[in-house]
Structures are given as structure tokens and as C-alpha cells.
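ESCALATION

Customer reports they have been waiting on this structure for their group meeting. Please prioritize. Original submission:
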Amino acid sequence: MIARNPKSLSALSAGKASYGARSILDQAEDYLECAKLYPCMYQPPKVIFEFMSGIEENLANKLKAIGIIVKGEILPNSVYIEDCDDSWSSESSDEESLCNQQSSLEQVSQCMEEHPKIDTLNLDVTAMMAYVSNMTNGHCNYVFIQEVLTQQCAWEAERPVKPVLERLFEGKSLVCCRTAWDDFEKIVNTLGGPMEKVRTEELKKMVEVFPDDYGGDDDYPRHNLKVRGHVRLRSKIIFNFGHRIKALTVSANEGFLRSSLQQGVTYAAFIHESRALTEGKESTAKKIEL
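Update from on-call: job pushed to the front of the queue and completed.
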């Protein structure tokens, strides 16, 4: 919050201030640069300046021209500002066209945020497990010794995950990083049953596996994400890979996203319910008729 009246803001932006004083235009540039470092769905967040006491028209136009969304009452320009800033107040037809173009770009940006055209899905280990699990492929009618598996079966009967994933996968390129695939394959080889292993081979034909470092270097916030609590190294590698290639990461790991957000880092992700591999445990479970 900055406590200044509209005339002071305009005067400061016109350079009428003590040495070293920063105008609201300088601050706007800083906010816009910061927004680029923390994209949401691969689009920089909107920067909104709200003026509770209003803002003079010339200054409001300058802020809008650089990409700031201005809220608050637009006030007439003071005589002082009009005299000192004729070059801005006497807008030519070219400048009006530029403002209209800027407005159109803002609308396009908003549309992209609401309907992002993401054609690549980055699969987390949890997504691949849910896809091949016997539980999600018609075998959720069991009561297991492990209570968590029985609970997941009940959820699966109410809210099947496989149809959700299949619909999400339609028309998309499926990718994952080497760490994700190797860990997933290791889990399947250790815990998976025969049919789950068959589905894994089918999934392997659908997914393109890339090196962990594919796509260049991580940006500053994600490179410096601290590994602690729910932020584990494997998850950081997988989600950072998805971010670098501008993919939507499909995962059940909501804990990682929450913990990352606490560190100020966000990811583009589709969260589904968790499902474990169950075929290997069906022999000790009680089958029920649905």
C-alpha cells in the first residue's frame, strides 16, 4: 500500500521529485518483471494497481500501455501535468491504435489463461500407477487386508479414475522424464501383477521418455525449491521437467504442490485421486459382489 494523492503520483511520474525517488511507473516495471518469473499455466499473472483515491487519466494510460490493469476512479488531468506532458496528452491516431491493440492483447492473454492450449502431458509416477492398476481396470470389488487399499476401492467404485485419465489423454502427447519412468517400472516389477505388467508395456508404447535435464535449465524459483517435507527430490525432478517443457503434469501428489506453494512456487498440474497397484494383493483379499 502506498499513501499518495493522485497529483503527487502524477508529479513523481513526471520526474518532479527528489533524487532517487521511484515513481509508480518504476514500481510497475518491477512488478511486471516479477510476474514473468512466476507464471501461472505458463502465462505471467496479471498485475493490478488499485487506486482508492483515484488516478489521473494520463498516468492511468501510461500504466495501461505497459501492461498494468488499473482499477479506481479515473480523474481529469491537473493543469500541471497537462502542461508538462503534452506529448502524452495529445494522442495521435497511431497512439490510439496502439492502446486498442494493447487492450486486444490483454483479452487474448486472459483467454489463454482461462483456456490454455497445452498439448503435452507430463506423467508422474502416481498417474502411471493409477492408469495400469487392476483397481482402476474393473477390479475394485475387493476388501483388502490393507485398509487404505479397501478405502481406495470404495472411492474407485464411486469415482473411477481411469475414464478421467483416458479423456485427459485424448489427442495429447504423453511424456515423462527418465526418473519417473524408471521408478514407476521398478514399482511395477516389484509389486505389480501379470495384467498390471501387461498394461505397463502398453503404456510404454504411448509415452515418450526424456532425460531428466531435457528442456534446459530450471528458472530461479524452481531451481531453488528446497527439498524438505513433502517436497522430495523425485517429485521436484518430475514437476520441474514438466515446467521446462511447458507441459501439464498429471499427478496425485497434491502434497508436493501444497508444499511448493508455501515456498512461493507453482506448477501447472492436473490432480487426480491416488490409486495403488492391487493385483498382487488380490489373492489375500476378500472379493465382494458389486
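Sent to customer with the following note: The chain has 14 helices and nine strands.
Escalation resolved.
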